[in-house]
Amino acid sequence: MFTRYLRLTKALVLSFFRDLQSLFFSLVMPLMFLVIFGFMYADMGDNARITQAAVYVNASETVFWQALEGIPGFKVLEVETQAQVEDMVRLQQVPVGLTWDGTELVLYTNPVNIQDNTYYNQLAQGVKTSLDQERMGVVEFVSLKRNAVGGDGGFGLPFIFPGIIALGVVSSGLFAITSSFMHYKDKKVLKRLVATPMSRLGFLAALMTTRGLVSIISALLVLAAGILVFGIQLDVDWLLFIPYLLLSTLMMMGFGALITLISKTAENATQIASILMTAMLFFSGIYFPVEFLPSYFQRASTFLPLTYVARGLRSIMGIEALNHGRLFWETALLVSVSLVLIWLTTLYSDWSEG
Amino acid sequence: MKQIFSIFRQYSLGALRDRYSLFWNLVFPLLLMAILVLVFGNMGELTGAMVFRIGLVNFEQQDGQMDEQRTSYAIQQTLEDAANKEEAWIELVSARNNKELDKTLAGLLQELEQGQLHAVLVIPDQFDGNVLQGIAGQFSPHVEAGQTGDLVVYYRRTNQMSIIAVDILSQIVEQVNRAISIEVGLADGSAAVALANRQVNPSSSIGKPFSFVGYIIPGIILMAFLSSGLEIVVERVASSREKGILRRYFASPLHPWQFTLGLLLYVVFLSLVQVILISLFSHFVFNTQLQLLQPLPLFYLVFALFTILSLGIGLVATAKTANAASTLTNALFYPLMFLGGLYFPVSNYPFPISIVVLVNPITYLVNGLRDSLGVFPSPTNATLNIVVPAAWMVGSLIYGIRRFNWSSKGDA
């Protein structure tokens, strides 16, 4: 029986690697997203990030330049007039502008740079604090010591990195049943399979193994690309990481099984899975915090398995703290539900249909 | 002509019967627009619209007494006042039991780690004494100068709300330092620097205020065009070719050019419906109306659609199988969409991604469309907005016509 299982697994692995579309969604697309979002979020929230600023000064004080030098985030581009600053920001030639007339510091931002303007405000606030200390003689009697809790990651690329890995897991897990299983059913492969000594559970076990393997390859590719291209350093708990990838693939397969139970054809199942995957990408907090969404969408995120998969991966990769007990119970619950759904698929899905 | 309409009718009826096609082509663009506007449309007013949950543990209050002269009292009072306002931006979670503040702190830190709080501020024991010592150090040679009262803020680096909360607390601390310095005569209040934040109006050249909805609509329209122009043309033609449907069509009196025109007519019709729906949705839901029927925007819409259709023809000529066609379409769809500036500006992308942005025809099409609609001035030259997509259109058409085969086996 074990030999049959191994042979079937080998056949499914080969079939996966011959299918360009499956290869693209499970292995190439996460890498593509890493490159696109990686450059978008690189160094976000980090002082090492350099922002080019158009600066116009209409005052003789050197104190302003000293204050500006103290802020490592600005790369200064001095211009002749205040209007030039405004134009350069308006035409997106620089993301931010500053003018100083001896009493007022003005920060010019472009509303289209929605994600970055909070960061530019912080930089300007730093210049103002420095100017106040020099000009007013403000003395620091109270200081604020910052202590980060719950993981070593910052908001930005490290935060979305597990989300990109989760994307590969979703693709391989969710589409394993909705696309592969239903495709084999449509092509009457399953009908022929039930006529052989191979059991239904044996087939599903081989499918799970194949897709678990794909999830691991996808995650390792994304990790390697993250380290090589973006220099990301993560404290990955490998003992938990690999088993969690397998379990999360299983969770997504369970979700796929639920879709299969309500779909008639492979095309229907794939379409529903695509719609749900898109919804999960937006509402699971993997590319932007769900707190930015209205409260009803925040509640919706608690029903999506990707929310838990991404959070679990963030915890295992040392980016965000999550109580191990909570991680265990959440995972156990989702895996149990998935196993039941997959079992129901074997019972209620007619394998002899084509 | 009859044959052309017959193909057009066949595709239109097929689309109407397929609820998933209806969803992706007609509903999804509206849904995406709503999501993007909900998430990013109000980000400028984020701190004004959101409530930060901040935990406060004041070890200086351990004895239960609060001296109004103390700095710790002033800080706590500032936070409580902010929390008690009608439109409060802070929800303050203070220690309930003054005798067991350590336990309270541990509890609050746990809540912070679990995401129930955005920050926890701790006013440590001896804080007021240290502040007083710092002040005394400025005046008396017998007291060591430079002593500060150190507040401690705990936060989560992975949460942007938490980071903003810490920045707000930093500003409060700065105000406290300024107030003390002025109070004890060390600082000159009149020399304070005023910080003003001015958002430029990117649409000032056409005399309109900037609107994120207006900015996003051209992006959504081009995304819909990409979806219909690439996915429908490439995937349907490749799939019909592979299944031998096209070969059977052309065994009938139907000519390939009639089939092509019928399919193009369907895509143009679908795109028209998409534009109308997006316009109506933005008008009724977001109260935004764009002059899409003016000559220049209309030119860009037609130009964009035909550029994308040409890309589709180039793709379908490249792919030998339906599977390869679908994979190629998706491999091109995401970079064209995300690196074409449909939703966010892409002018600040670093090398080598900037190269993709520069050669991407969508970058120029969306810039030209936004500029022509007066919602956002084009960061790229007006000539380039025509020349680059036109080069892609001509190149793809020449390549597509030379390489395209109606038969999947290449024998037709």
Provide a descriptive summary of the structure in words:
The complex is a heterodimer of chains A (354) and B (412). Chain A is of the alpha/beta class and 354 residues long. Chain A has 2 domains: 2-42 and 154-348, no CATH class; 51-135, abc type-2 transporter like domain (abc type-2 transporter like fold), CATH 3.40.1710. Helices cover 64% and strands 8% of the residues of chain A. In chain A, helix 3 links the parallel strand 1 and strand 2. Chain B has 2 domains: 11-41 and 204-403, no CATH class; 46-191, D-Maltodextrin-Binding Protein, domain 2, CATH 3.40.190. Chain B has a 4-stranded mixed sheet with strand order 2-1-3-4, with helices on both faces. The radius of gyration of chain B is 31 Å and the shape is elongated. Residues 44-48 of chain B have low confidence and may be disordered. The interface between A and B is large, with 89 and 92 residues. Strand 4 (104-109) of chain A pairs parallel with strand 5 (194-199) of chain B.
